[in-house]
Structure formats: C-alpha cells, structure tokens
Amino acid sequence: MAAYTQVDGALGSEASTREVALRDLLQVLRRRRSTIIASVLCCTALATAGALLYEPRFTSQAVLIIDPRTTAVTDIDAVISNLPREAAAIRTEIDMITATATAAKVVDRLGLVHDPEFNGAIERPSAIDRAVAGINDILGYDLSPLRQQITGYLNSAGIGVKEPTTPEKERAAVIAEVRRGLSATSDAQSYTIVVSFKAKESEKAARIANAFVDEYLLDQLNTKQEVTQQANKWLEDRITELRAQVEASDKAVQDYRAQQGLVLGGAGGESFLSQQLAELNRALVVAQTERGRAEARAQNARIVARSPTEGNAAEVLGSPLIQRLGEEESGIARRLAEYRTRYGDQHPAVQAYVTQLTNLRQKIREEATKIMAVINNEVEIARARERELEAALKKLTAETAGELGANVRLAQLQREADANRRVYEGLLQRLVETREQGDLQQRDARVVSKAEPPLEPSTPGKKLFVGGGLAVGLLIGMFLAFLRDHLNKTFRNTQHVEETIGVPAIGLVPSLPQHKNAKPEDYVLDRPRSEYSEAVRAIGVSLYARGALNTGSVVMVTSAVPGEGKTTVCLTLARMLAASGRRVLLLECDLRCPRIGKVLGDNAPGDLSDLIVGKAEWQDVVQVDGRTGLHYVVGRPHCDHPQELLGSEKLASIIKFASLEYDCVILDTPPMAVVADAGVLTRSATECLFVVRWEQTPRAVVQRAIDRLTELGRDVTSVVLSRVDLKRLARTDASEEAYGMNEARRYYTR
What are the Polysaccharide chain length determinant N-terminal domain coordinates in residue numbering (predicted)? Predict the structure, then answer.
C-alpha cells in the first residue's frame, strides 16, 4: 500500500508540475497579448500588401517516368546501359533536367533572351510605374511628368542608372532567371519526376516546362547515339590496326616455316618427319605386342612339350591334330579310370588302356615338338622386326631433333597469329552489332503527361499570403512575448516576491486612476471602502498580526530606488492608522528630498534636523494632521551632511523616546540603492517595510538593497508591492491573489 501511495504521489506531483507550467505559459501569453496582437497585425498587413503588389505567377507541370521496363529487340549488348532504378540515379536525372546546360538550350530554343520577364535589361514597367498608372486611373490626373522629373533627378544623382551589359552577360542572367522558375521533384517511392515551371503567363509556363522535358529526352537520345558513334569509330580504327597485325603475323608464320623447311604433311598441319615418327612409334608398339604374344605362346608350348597333360595343349599350340589326340586321350583316360575301379590294375583290359594312353601321349609330344620349332621361329622373326623398328625409330628421332627447336618458335608465332585473329574477329562482330544499334536506341524516360496552361495562378494565393502572415505574426508575437517576459526582471505578484528574495510580501498597493487626479493620502480618507483603502488597511492588519504595530514598535519604510511609492505608503498607512484611533508618529528621515511637508503642510518653526542638533524643542517640530490626528515631523533639505545627523545618538534617543510615547513610530527613509542614509537608521527600527514598485523595479536592484540592509544588521521583515494595476493583474496573472479579483470589486466603492 505504501508503494502505491508513493507512486500516486509522484504521478500527482508530475501532473501538478505540468499544470503549473502550462498555466504559466498561458499567463505569459495573456500578459503580453498586446505584443502578440501588434505582431499579428503588422505581419498580416505586410503580407496583405505583398499579396496585392506581387504579380501573379502560373505554375505548369509535366510528368516524366523513368521507365523500369526495357524493350529487348535483340540480344546485342548496348554500348551504354540503361539507367539503374535507384534513388541516386533519379536524383542525378533531376540534376540533368535543372542543369545550366539544359536551361541554356531552352533559352536559345524559345528565344527567352528577348522576353522582358527573364531579361532585366529590357525596359519594362516597374512597380512604381504600375502604381502611378493606378493613381492616374483613380484620380484622372496624369502623374507621368512628375514621375519623369523625379526619375531625371535620380538618374542625375546616379540612382537607378543601369550599368552597361554584354550579350553574354544578358544570356547568363536570363539562364539564371529561368532556372529560378524551374523545379523538378520526385517521390522516393516511385519512378516519376514532376517538372514544374512558374511564369507570369499560363501558356508560357506550359511551353517552357514542355521545352525542358523535350530537351532532356533529346539529350538522352543524343548521348546514346554519340556514345555509339564514338564506339563505332573506335572499333573501325582498331579493326584496321588488327587487320594489319593479323596479316603480318600470318606472313611471319609462313616465312618462318619456309625458312626452316617445315613442310606440312597433311591436313593436320604436321610435318612429314613428325608423321613418320608417329607411324614408326605405332609400328614399334605393334611389333612389341606381337613379340610378347609370340614369346607367351612359346612359353606355353614348352610347358606342353614337357608335360602334355598340363595345361590345354590344343588351345596353346592351336593344332587340330593335337586337339583330336587330346580328345582321344581324354576318352581313354576316362575308360581307364572306370576299368581300374571295376577290375583293378592287373586286368588285361586295364593294361591295354595304359599302353594306348602312353602311345597317345608320345604322339602329342612329338607333334608339340614340331609346333615348338615353328613357334620359336615366329618369336625370332618378331624380335628381329622389333629390332629393325627400334633402329629406324632411333635414326628418325635423330633426324627430327633439329626440327624441334624450329617447331617451338613456329608454335609461338602461330599462337600470336591465332590470338590476333580471335581479337580481330571479336571486334569485327562487335562492330556489326553496334552498327545495328543505331536505329534501336531508346530513351530511359518517357512523358506521362505534358504540361498544360493552368487556369488559375499558383502565387500569390492571397488567402495563403494573409494566412501565412497571420501565422508568422502569431509566431513572432509569441516569441517576442516570451522574450519580453523572460527579459522582464521585475516582480509580478507577492508569490513571486517570496519565491525570489525569500521575504514575506504582505500586500499590494493599487495605483489610483490618473483621470481623477486623486491624492492617495486623501483617497484613503475620502473613500474608506475603495480598493486602495482596503489594500492599505490590509497592510496595517498584516503588520499588526506580525506585532509590528505594538506599543514601542518602530517601522522603517524604505525602497531600493526613488519613485517606488515609499513616501505614499508611509503617508497613507500613517493617516489610516491615526484615523483608526492609534497614536502614530511619522518621522520624515529623508533629509535630501523631503515631501511630507508639501503634502500635509509645514507650519512648524523647526524640523527634524533642528531637533537633532538642539536648535528646536520637541513641541517646536511636531505637527498634527487636522483630519486624522497624525503627529508628524518633517525634514528640510538644508543639511549638508544628513547621514551624520541620521546616524547620531541624538536621533536614536529621539526615536526611543517617541516609541515610548506613541503606539507606533513610522520612519520614512531614503532609498537604499541611492544613498546610505537609511543604513544608519537600521539600529533604531524594530521592523523594516520594503516598498517595491510592481513590474518596474528590477529584481537584482531589490536584492542588492535587501542584502545591503542585511549586512547592516537589519533584516527586511516584509515587502509591499506599490502602484499595482489590479485590472491588468487579474487579467494576466495566475497567482492565488489575482484569482477572483474582478469579481471582488463589487465589495469596493469607486
């Protein structure tokens, strides 16, 4: 629960702070509303005058689109690629549209150098001329002679005389003026570009906007064509050079081949020696294969010859007879095995089969021996063939060794010739492609809508001008209001006094109406139920509640600077207290600029100075106000050293004596920030009432005077704001004392 309470308290404090800040802002606007109203009126009047004097302008717009779609008629790569679909590319195209070069082409194309709207060197009616013409129409009186006479005087004085110019400067000035009326914008979310132009005539605005679009599109196409033509020219020149290089490299190959005797042997481009060497290598491989095969047959034949039963003699020797004998051997061996199993080894049939098998195998060996002789002969023939081929290959290899070095150089020349030919053929193909592109060039942008003459002017919109002036005036007025309020270092209310200097403010003394010529000291008596009287009475009540009006009290009334209403507060407060039945003594301690005698009358033979120095007695200086019974002692400006008199022990004893005789003693002292007279009186006073003029005296001056009093040992016990405009306070202030002030006036008499 405590946590919730703490949070609620913090939120409430924050809300209260926001409410106070908002209220203060609103009160500043209320206090300075005259500044705001004056600023609004001035700016609105200037804007209205500007709208009436400014010539109307028409704005026409043409819309372009950077087309993201591309037309692919062929697969040929373009010399210059299409625009990328990026914001930077569109920004670049906008810069191209608004470039000086594009504006120069439009100026030359439309002859805008001769247009007075853009060429200031051409004579045209000025604003003064138009005003004179308007006056002529209204009054029916021709003011042209007067206008010419004034112009002549100004020209003779060197005012309004135009400097001579050149056609180049005129053209440059026209281009700059045209560019000022041009604008090109694009939305970052689309590919569209809006080209706008502002001119005095609607048809002219549309014509110039369309001219910029046409020049931009034409420049795109011309740029691509120029780049393509430059590429074709370069390709043609390069192809001519490469053609000569290809011919030279081919001739170098042929010359070297002829020089080295490297005659080609066939369609493959090889020499005869190379072909023979390759054929011998192939023949040697075949001979080596045949020799290996013959040796293998001889080895198998020897095995068969040693033991016909091992291996397959028929397959090894390849003889039909051996094959037939082998088949017979197989049959006899099978029958022999059967008979041995059935009859045993001693049976005559078994012995007969053994004899047949032995004879048959002897025949096979004899036949194999004959075949072996043939196979061995074949092996020797294969070996001899191999030796012959190896010898021929060795001889041919020796002959081709000299040709190898020449072939390396020939291969290098051939590679160079082939490389030149490939580059030549590639560039020749590219030249054909670029020539075909001449009629296929496309713009990267197209026109969505052409500019049309607008029906109504875009500027000046009179309502916009007036509204803008009103808004600007309001902003300037608010700025000036807050600036004035910030620079205002005075006091606005009693709460402000207490927060700034930390001294209680006990009342507001209103200012009296100037048209009534009322005197405050009489007004409190003549109008006891007036606002002024009640304010002075409230000060008295506050002093009484604080104990400042008890018997023996001495109230010192001072201010920071003259003109604060200090003496007026003394007089009105003293007369009101005296009228209420109290015995009050008013001592005028301002011996430099005394005023009480002029207000209440001065008929005494002596003054305060005479009393201090002993020239007069008490009964000679004390005077009585006939209307209230107030006792007062005036001061007269005949003393050269008033500070010494005011700081004397004599005056201190006089004040002490008076405090015993009267209910209250009021000291009217000089301002603290001007002279040091009031400082010496601080030791005799029991209370210090400080008078500050409302919204007039700077806070720093008041603070310095109060600090000075504090240094002298007397704290300021209370502050009174004088000459307060209560109507204005109630209207512009948000303090508690200002709340309901207008409604409270029904309790006061006028």
Answer: 19-109
Q: Between 354 and 557, whose confidence is greater? A: 557
Decide if pLDDT at 457 tops 80.
no
pLDDT, the chain, mean: 77
Q: Distance (Å, rounded) from C-alpha 20 to C-alpha 743?
A: 23
List C-alpha distances in Å: 691 to 106, 274, 584, 621, 702: 77, 130, 20, 27, 9
pLDDT digits (tens, 9 = 90+) for 282-338: 877 887 788 777 777 777 767 766 665 544 544 445 567 777 777 777 888 888 788
Most confident of 264-273, 471-480, 581-590: 581-590
pTM: 0.49
Q: What is the 3-state secondary structure (H, E, C) of 500-519?
A: HHCCCEEEEEECCCHHHCCC
- Give φ, ψ of 508 to 5 degrees: -120, 125
Find out whether 583 and 662 touch, Cβ atoms under 8 Å: yes
Q: How confident is the model at residue 622 (pLDDT cuts 50, 70, 90)?
A: very high
The H or E element spanning position 194 is: strand 192-199
Nearest to 609 by CA among 637, 584, 585: 637
HSE, side-chain direction, 13 A CA sphere, residue 150: 8
- 3-state SS class at 721: strand
pLDDT band per the 50, 70, 90 thresholds, residue 75: very low
Cα 295 from Cα 297, distance rounded (Å): 5
C-beta neighbour count of 643 within 10 angstroms: 17
pLDDT tens per residue across span 223-282: 777 777 777 788 778 888 878 887 888 887 787 777 766 655 444 445 666 677 777 778
C-alpha closest to that of 730 among 744, 717, 720, 719: 744
CB-CB contact of 555 with 689 (8 Å): yes
Residue 311 to residues 119, 303, 330, 376, 648, Cα–Cα distance (Å): 121, 8, 13, 19, 163
| Concatenated DSSP letters of 62-90 | EEEEE------SSSPPPSSPPPPSSHHHH
Closest by CA to 670, choosing from 556, 543, 573, is 556
If you search the block for the tokens 């205002």, which residue do you land on?
488
Q: Give the separation between CA 614 and CA 607, rounded to whole angstroms.
A: 11
Q: Binning pLDDT at 50, 70 and 90, where does residue 72 land?
A: very low
Residue indicated by tokens 């209220």: 23
Residue 23, token pair as written in the block: 């209220």
Mean pLDDT of 25-46: 79
Cβ(509)–Cβ(535) below 8 Å: yes
Task: Say what percent of the chain tops pLDDT 70.
Answer: 76
Residue of 260, 278, 268, 269 whose CA lies nearest to 404: 260
| Residue 185 dihedral angles phi and psi, to the nearest 5° | -130, 160
For 429-462, b/e burial (b = at least 16 CB within 10 A) is ebbeebeebeeebebbbebeeebeebeebbebee
Comparing CA positions, the residue from 708, 601, 615, 608 lying closest to residue 655 is 608
Q: In what order do the strands lie in the sheet with 58-66?
A: 182-186, 192-199, 58-66, 445-449
Give the integer Cα–Cα distance in Å for 429 and 700: 93
**Inter-residue contact 616 to 610 (CB < 8 Å):** yes
